[in-house]
Amino acid sequence: MDIRPRRNRKSEAIRSLVQETTVTTNDFIFPLFLLEDSNATLEVASMPGIYRMGLNYMLREIESCLKLGIQAFDIFPVVAESYKDKTATKSYDKSFFYHKALTKIKQEFPEAAIMTDVALDPYNSDGHDGIVKDGIILNDETLEVLGKQALSQAESGADIIGPSDMMDGRVGFIRETLDDNGFTDVSIMSYTAKYASAFYGPFRDALDSAPKSGDKKTYQMNPANQREALIEADLDVDEGADFLMVKPALAYLDVIKLLKDNYSQPIAAYNVSGEYAMLKAAAEKGWLDYDRVMAETLLSIKRAGADIILTYHAKEFAQLSGAL
Ligand code: PBG
C-alpha cells in the first residue's frame, strides 16, 4: 500500500500537526441573561450552569470571562410582564435597566465587544418579534420600532447589533438609522438564516418570552429549506450586514457550510439553548462525557464553516482549555 492514512494518526504530535480545525476562545460570543435586580442570580432550570444575573454579578462574570480569553458577550434582558406592551416601548427606552446596564458594562470593560439583540419578543405583551394586529405580525410597522431599538442600544454602548426578528428589510432599515445618527462604526450581525426551531425552548423559559399565541412560522424560516437561506443572505449583504448568522447550529450545519461557501462575510452560528440543554441533560444522567461532547460539538460547528460561535458552553470550554 502506497497510501496509509493511519500514518498521519500515529501519535498525538502528528495528529496535532495535521489537525485542520481548532476552536479557541477568540471564536466565542457568550450569551448572558440580565436581571433587573442588580444583586440577584437565578439559574435557568432547563439550562443547568447558566444563570440569569443582575448587573453586579454580570460585571464580575464578564471580568472573569475576559481573563479566560472570552472577549465578546451578547446580553439579553429578562423583562417583567408589567413592562411589556403591544408596541414594546421599553425596547427603546434609554432609561430602562437594560440600557443603563449596557452603558455601565461598556464603561467598565471598553475592550469587550458587546452585542445586543434586536427583536420585540422580550418587551412585547404578545411575545412575538414584531407588532401583532389581529393575529398578524406586521412587517413595516415593526421596522420603525426595531430602528428605534437598535439606535437606543447603540447610544447605550452596543458594539454589535443583532437583529433576530426576521422582518423583511430590517438590516437596511437599521443600518440607515444607525448611519443617520452617526453610528457608522456600530456593526450589524444579522440573524440571516434563523429557523422556526423547537430548540429555542429553554431560552424562552429563561426570558419568559414565549409567544402568547401562535408560532413564529410566518417570519422565521422553515427548517426544511436550505436555498431560501441564500435569498436571506443576498438581502443581508446588500443591506449592509457585517456578519451573517445561522441559527440554530447543530441541526443546520449544512446551512453554515452553504453560507461559508457563497459569501465572504464572516459566518456566525448560534449554538442555541436547546442544544446546550441536550448535552447537559445527558451528562446529568451519566450517559455522555460532557467535556468531550462539548468540545466535539463546538469543533463540528467550526468545521462546518462558522468563524464565530455564540454558545452557552463558552466559559466551560475556556476553563477546560485552560486546564489542559
Ligand atoms: C429573540 C431570540 C431568540 C433567541 C435569540 N434571540 C428566541 C426566539 O426567536 O424565539 C434564541 C436563543 C437560544 O435559544 O439560545 N428573537
What can be said about this structure in brief?
This protein is of the alpha/beta class and 324 residues long.
Walk me through this protein's architecture.
With 324 residues, the protein is of the alpha/beta class. The chain has a single domain, classed as Aldolase class I (TIM Barrel, Alpha-Beta Barrel), CATH 3.20.20. Helices cover 39% and strands 18% of the residues. The protein contains 11 helices and 12 strands. The strands form 2 sheets. An 8-stranded parallel β-barrel has the order 1-4-5-8-9-10-11-12, surrounded by 8 helices. A two-stranded antiparallel ribbon has the order 6-7. Strand 4 (72-77), helix 3 (97-108) and strand 5 form a beta-alpha-beta unit. The longest helix has 16 residues, at 140-155. It is globular, with a radius of gyration of 20 Å. The two termini are 37 Å apart. Bound molecules: ligand PBG. Ligand PBG binds at residues 117, 119, 121, 129, 164, 200, 203-204, 272-273. Ligand PBG binds next to helix 6.
Blueprint (SSEs and pairs):
Layout: H1 12-18, E1 28-34, E2 41-43, E3 51-53, H2 55-68, E4 72-77, H3 97-108, E5 113-118, E6 131-133, E7 136-138, H4 140-155, E8 160-163, H5 170-180, E9 187-194, H6 201-207, H7 228-239, E10 243-247, H8 253-262, E11 267-271, H9 273-284, H10 290-304, E12 308-311, H11 314-323
Parallel strand pairs: 1-3, 1-4, 1-12, 4-5, 5-8, 8-9, 9-10, 10-11, 11-12
Antiparallel strand pairs: 2-3, 6-7
This protein binds ligand PBG.
Ligand PBG binds next to helix 6.
